[in-house]
Amino acid sequence: MEFREEKSRLRRACLEKLKDISQDGRREISRRICERLFSSPEYLRAGGIFCFVGCGAEIDTRPFLRRAAADGKKVYVPRCRSAGEMDAVQIRGEEDLVPGKYGIPEPPPDFPAADRDEIGLAVVPCLAADADAWRLGRGGGYYDRFLEGFCGDTLLVCPEALVLPRVPREKWDRKCGRLITEDRG
Fold first, then answer.
1. pLDDT tens digits, residue range 11-57?
2. Where would a tag sit more exposed on the chain, N or C end, judged by fewer CB atoms within 10 A?
């Protein structure tokens, strides 16, 4: 099977598996992942946190973003630019978010992009992952491009049900520092 076809097949299978997780199940998974993030040494030492704004079937990161701000961390979220590229933009809170590309909540265009050197920790989403913190994303390459040259810590968040024995990799795929699920990390 061709490599890209294998990734596409895996993405479809993971999206189907996500549908099997109830709304209550997703809330509990998100809560437990956020608790693991809060107690991680990477979170505790970081002054600036970059994290996606979970929507749909993704991990709900809003409680994480709120607590990071309450803990005095600088909070940065993604804003899509051109195809496959995104910026980290500092926000004060959820009130700074508007529907962006693909309907994903993001800062408005007039908020300045941040210098990635200000960010000590990036919390990275995925469709699936393996135990070595390789990720299967949605196929746009946004996070692989963002993480290229990123010097901070990276934590990959994924429901345990979507941890695979091995995620297929291409030369541009970026490995994260560590995997966090509701049961590990």
1. 999 999 998 999 999 999 999 999 999 999 999 999 999 999 998 88
2. N
What would the pLDDT profile of 69-110 be if each residue is shown by its tens digit?
999 999 999 999 877 889 999 999 999 999 987 788 999 999
CB atoms within 10 A of CB 13: 14
What's the sign of the alpha-carbon dihedral 91, 93, 99, 105? Answer: positive
Token pair, residue 96, equals 């700074």
pTM of the predicted protein model: 0.94
Burial of 61 by CB count in 10 Å (0-12 exposed, 13-18 middle, 19+ buried)? buried
